[in-house]
Amino acid sequence: MLKPLSGIRVLELGQLIAGPFAAKMLGEFGAEVIKIEPPGTGDPLRKWRMLHEGTSVWWAVQSRNKQSLALDLRQPEGQDVVRRLAAEADILIENFRPGTLEEWGLGWDALHQLNPRLIMLRVSGYGQTGPYRDRPGFGLIGEAMGGLRHLSGEPGRPPVRVGVSIGDSLAALHGVIGVLLALRHREQNGGEGQSVDVALYESVFNMMESLLPEYSVFKAVRQPAGSSLPGITPSNAYVCADGKYALVAGNGDSIFKRLMAVIGREDMAANPEYAHNDGRARHAQTIDAAIGAWARGLSLDAVLEKLHEARIPAGRVYDIADICADPHYRARDMILQSQLADGTPIELPGIVPKLSATPGEMRSAAPGLGQDTERVLDSLGIDAATREDWESRGIIQSGPAAEK
């Protein structure tokens, strides 16, 4: 059965995380993704984090289901190749500084005129408009401006970052949503494409729940709260007898009553002040103290067993070793078996969301730099002599030479 995005061609001009992450998701559901990288160096992500044989193992996740075209976009010949590819593409993804593509003659107005069906996803720190549009914007800046960094960490201590590039990933997810909406619009409106403008800070801000209305109405500035969830009680981490932490979310009204029964505090379960969340929130310290006292007398496994039996949402804090050992991850194909270019086995994250009829899949491993240059250029009718000339001048690169 065809995948949802079979027949859709994506041209990826982005680097590192946000743009490539969006293209990765589209590729997992059937889109053909042609990734353009600079000759010689390739996408900087190839050298990020831990390297195997000179290439990041992160690359194996971010670039699966993609083809690599090593092409210098700063050269007129490279820009012309992009125009020829964009003329046949459905989607173009880029996350350069706003104005960069315009300087190369590859901006939205030019490409839309060339291919009115084209959908262009533009991911940047601050968006394509506004007084900050020209500022360099990385994920951590988006996380800070979007309000997330202020809430991260313990009260009275410096803000901490989430341990992954969450700002970039959130922007990518919003970008995928925007692309799918634009595809639907194109289907409904005679094939007309559009530009999708995604800013990192806005993608983070969109996750900030009630932050703005609380400030608007009450002038309340929410502060860091460590492991608790302010205003929603109980929802916290509680240390157990073995020094491990149990995460407990007993904030539903009926769940709270079951939780109190488990810890032997029927008096709290029967207290009308605690019947609903607003009342419980006013007494969060008292409730947390009662749960904490109970948890300290039991091991983490014993705490979770009792809570699960009572149908109370609870869990442990997983590290990656816990994830790899967990049978639920395996049962839902969230850990996939693959191998690197030299045959080294590697486990990669599974694919989400899970569609019942047309699930995503890993069709091909991440490519070497320029692995598909010859094939893509040949498909455009660019002859071997021209390709040889371009390679000698550094405009293109063929084959996986840069992987060595």
Automatic annotation (TrEMBL):
- Domain of life, source organism: Bacteria
Tell me which InterPro entries the record gives. Answer: CoA-transferase_III_domain (IPR050483), CoA-Trfase_fam_III (IPR003673), CoA-Trfase_III_dom3_sf (IPR044855), CoA-Trfase_III_dom_1_sf (IPR023606)
**What keywords is this UniProt entry annotated with?**
Transferase
Select a single GO molecular function from the record's annotations and give it.
CoA-transferase activity
- Name used for this protein in its record: Formyl-CoA transferase
